[in-house]
Amino acid sequence: MSGLQLIFALIVISAASTFLRFLYVLPAFNPTRPRRRIKGQSTRLLVVLGSGGHTAEMLSLLHDLDPALYTHRSYVLSSGDDFSALKAVEFESTIEAKNENVKQDFTTASSTYDISVIPRARRIHQSLFTAPVSSLRCLFACFAILRAPGTQKLSHSDTDQQHISQRSYPDLIVANGPATAVLVIIASLILRFFNIRGTEGKMRTIYIESWARVSTLSLSGKILMAGGMVNRMLVQWENLAQRGQGEFRGALVR
After folding, report:
1. Residue 51 has pLDDT above 70, yes or no
2. How far, in Å, CA of 100 to CA of 97, rounded?
């Protein structure tokens, strides 16, 4: 075998291996069952918030969230989205109020949360020529918030803060529409593609299409569905599920 043939063979083998690895990390091509979790076990939930309606819908979806199952919540939002940051704090206050009289044998779940702010993927009216640059900045920021909770908002005690800082990749990522969600999920797949230490069995994803999407998926939903990037795609209108565009579990927004 000549040197040129050897190089060509190595390129083909590398390309095939990369493609197979890519398929392996895509949930649609390699569905796996989530790990069984024990109530009270340390579990990190990452919630992607969008501006306005997306945030209102997401927090409505999480209305019955059990802090004993999801002991730490990470909220991710875009820069300048003060509304979502405020609503996340208010939501955590309601969780604390609901559970203030509940005795638990682990760190108080209602006080363990953080809020991370990442650059916007694309600003309103931003040129399409500069959008790839800002999207890359957003993507790189996503790697950091996936690796460990942020520090803008943390639990109230130093002990809890130390406990949170030791946590790693989220067990579950939940999103419902904003473009930022696509980049967060892509970042999680890249980390899993390179088999970064600590990612095994982590970062399962659930995408919940907005209640307002009656006849078609949003652009974010179409990208994630076409790429097979999420473990579960939930829609809130039965006709979408009937066309194979997700799972219908009824209207999830209160």
Report:
1. yes
2. 5
Which two tokens mark 184? 């967060």
In one-letter notation, the amino acid at residue 76 is V
Which amino acid belongs to residue 232? R
The 10 Å Cβ neighbour count of residue 228 is 15
Which strand ranges, in their side-by-side order, compose the sheet holding 44-48?
Answer: 113-118, 72-78, 44-48, 172-175, 204-208, 232-235, 247-248
Residue 202: CB partners within 8 Å, gap ≥ 6? 168, 169, 170, 171
Instruction: Report H helices in the chain.
Output: 3-25, 53-61, 82-99, 131-147, 158-165, 179-193, 219-227, 238-242
DSSP 43: -
Rounded Cα distance between 123 and 170, Å, is 27
Asked whether residue 169 carries a pLDDT value surpassing 90, the answer given is yes
Number of other CB atoms surrounding residue 135 within 10 Å: 19
The dihedral built from the CA positions of residue 71, 77, 80 and 83, taken in this order, carries a sign that is negative
The whole-angstrom separation of Cα 201 and Cα 223 is 23
Could you tell me which residues come within 8 angstroms of residue 103 by beta carbon, excluding any fewer than 6 positions away?
none
Q: Which of 88, 193, 81 is nearest to 138 (CA)?
A: 81
CA distance 26 to 28: 6
Residue pLDDT, tens place only, 184-207: 999 999 999 999 988 988 999 999
Q: What is the DSSP letter of 240?
A: H
Please give the backbone phi and psi of residue 173, each rounded to the nearest 5 degrees, phi first: -115, 130
Q: Are 252 and 234 in contact (CB under 8 A)?
A: yes
The structure tokens listed for 47 are: 């919630």
AA letter at 216: T
